[in-house]
Amino acid sequence: MNTAVSLDNVGSPLGEPVYQLSNVSKTYARNKVVALDDVSLSLRKGSFTSVIGSSGCGKSTLLKIMAGLIPPTQGRVTLQGKPVTGTRRDIGMMFQQATLFPWKTAVENIVLPIEIRDGKAAAAKAMDKANALLDIVGLKGFEGVYPNELSGGMAQRASICRMLITEPAVLLLDEPFSALDELSRDMMNMELQRICREQDATAFLVTHSIQEAVILSDEIVVMKPRPGRIAEIVKVDLPRPRTLEMMTSPKFGEIVDYIRGLLDKGEDM
Amino acid sequence: MSDVHSTGPAGVDDADDTVWVQKISFIDSVPRWVAMSFVFLVFVGTWQLVTVFELVSPIILPTPWETLLDMIFVGKNLLTGGYMLVSLWITIQEVILGFALAITIGISLGVLVGETAFGEKAVMPYLVAIDTMPKVAFAPLFVAWLGFGIESKVALAAFIATFPIVVGTAAGLHSADENARMLFKTMGATRLQTLFKMKFPTGLPQIFTGLKIGAVGVMAGAITGEFLGGGKGFGELIRIAASQLNTPRVFSLILYLSLVGLALYLLVMHAQRKVVFWHEERVGAHE
Questions:
Q1: Which of A24, B57, B161, B251 has the highest Cβ tally under 10 A?
Q2: For residue B237, what pLDDT is reported?
Q3: How many CB atoms within 10 Å of residue B12?
């Protein structure tokens, strides 16, 4: 079974580790639930990592710890050599909903992280950069438009820009396109790949879709529930750049099947 | 088979053969002003009939015509700056001051209750308790405390209008979703930034709902205050006219008073359209 996906990463050159978690555990004091048990992970510069697992496997707890939103009970979390002790500007995050604020135009939404951290003057200075980002995601000319007038896909493009404006060292993506229809979703995934490559971004994606994880990732962290822990880290050696046509290739199918097998085993426990 | 729609199964391509069309109900085809005029005419017609056949004593129910004449008389008095305009201005002052006070106290208390755990735990129960009391019953107290001038009316008006604004503000501050809160946390926002840049604007639709309910209450408060605490406002004119059984006058005074209330309501609605431009008000807007 393992030989089918004896995956050595040859497709994409990877840099030094940017984000490291060692022996991270999280127990919620309130109900003594062990959400995460001894999780160790390393994200390399420019790599794309996905985490997949059934509900209750601790994906969202892991993401919140990585975002600096909640502290781990045990273990070390370091980003760019510095321990993560709270939210930081070099951590970018994106959610299932675009979460754009309707009283601000697209470009004002994008510079909001700058406005919050450095004030209105800095936000005004960042306008040019925001416009450049809008151009990158294909929303040129939409800077003055209010979110109500954007489609779901366009809104998510704008929220990609908002995430990128502070030039974070790591992008945390919490099922960013799962609210979109399947066609837009495939398209947005390809866009995401292109943007990540252009920006040499290190990305970490939480998803429910095996296909999505495989088409985007260099490594897939498969997690098991109760307690949440890593079952296996699967490397994906499909060449870059990935295309939607690869989803019909035998190799893609093999990897998907392998991961599905791991997840099914997890269910029995 | 691909052109089934253009020819139809029976091979007939004539539009006249449509068997199932959307019927437009009669009321949908009538303009609003026509429908409203109809209701108005039925109302005035019934009123006229009641007075013609003296189903109700003419002393307590004037004819529509008498009422119209009195409305013109009152209108003239107001336009020429007569004593009624002086009274109306007093009432308008009470309403404006009362509303301003209610907005200030209401939003402050709303923030205290909606934003702080202390407010939610320790203050909210008292607000709920006071809100369930019949607030008009406090009028004699306000008169005792603040006298027969406009202060006691302003106080009662503000007292009645404050609660919906508190509730609207507190509910508004709670309306931000989990993602927005998390986003602000990841951006390193302070508590004040989160409040003013996210929670408050997110809650504006609810806050304005509170303001609109408050705008109606403030009017009722000012007039009740005048009924119970004297003074020189419009409410006093109504009270005097009623005590003299001058019913046409009571009707026309109420009408002019309701114009003030309507103006205040429309002012709040206009402000809402300007401020909360992204939020479409659905209630009462069928167009």
A1: B161
A2: 92
A3: 10
**Is A56 an interface residue toward B (CB < 8 Å)?**
no
**Average pLDDT for A67-96:** 88
- Which of A87, A96, A97 lies closest to B186 in CB terms? A87
A125-158 tens-digit pLDDT: 889 989 988 988 888 889 899 999 998 888 988 9
Flag whether residue A89 sits within 8 Å of chain B, measured between CB atoms. yes
Do the Cβ atoms of A149 and A139 come closer than 8 Å?
Answer: no
Determine, for residues B188 and A116 on separate chains, whether the beta-carbon distance falls below 8 Å.
yes
Q: Do residue A113 and residue B187 have CB atoms under 8 angstroms apart?
A: yes
Quick check: B90 contacting A, CB < 8 Å? no
B185 lies within 8 A of chain A by CB: yes
Closest chain B C-alpha to A155 CA, distance in angstroms: 14
Give domain limits for chain A: 24-90+168-256, 100-167
Parallel/antiparallel/unpaired status of strands A17-28 and A74-79: antiparallel
Architecture of domain A24-90+168-256: 3-Layer(aba) Sandwich (3.40)
- The C-alpha of A206 sits at a distance from chain B's nearest C-alpha, in angstroms, of 15
Count CA atoms within 13 Å of residue B153 on its CB side: 28
Q: Which residue of B has its CA nearest to A68?
A: B186
Residue among A179, A192, A156, A173 nearest A92 (CA): A173
Q: What tokens does B180 get? A: 């927005």
pTM of this structure: 0.81
CATH architecture under which domain B74-275 falls = Orthogonal Bundle (1.10)
A67 to chain B: which residues are within 8 Å by CB?
Answer: 182, 186
Residue A29 confidence (pLDDT): 78
Chain A hits for B187, CB-CB cut-off 8 Å, are 87, 112-113, 116-117
Residues B8-36: pLDDT tens digits? 444 445 556 777 877 888 888 888 999 99
**What integer pLDDT is reported at residue A7 of this predicted model?**
40
- CA A141 → CA A114, A132, A138, B39, B238, distances in Å? 21, 11, 9, 50, 60
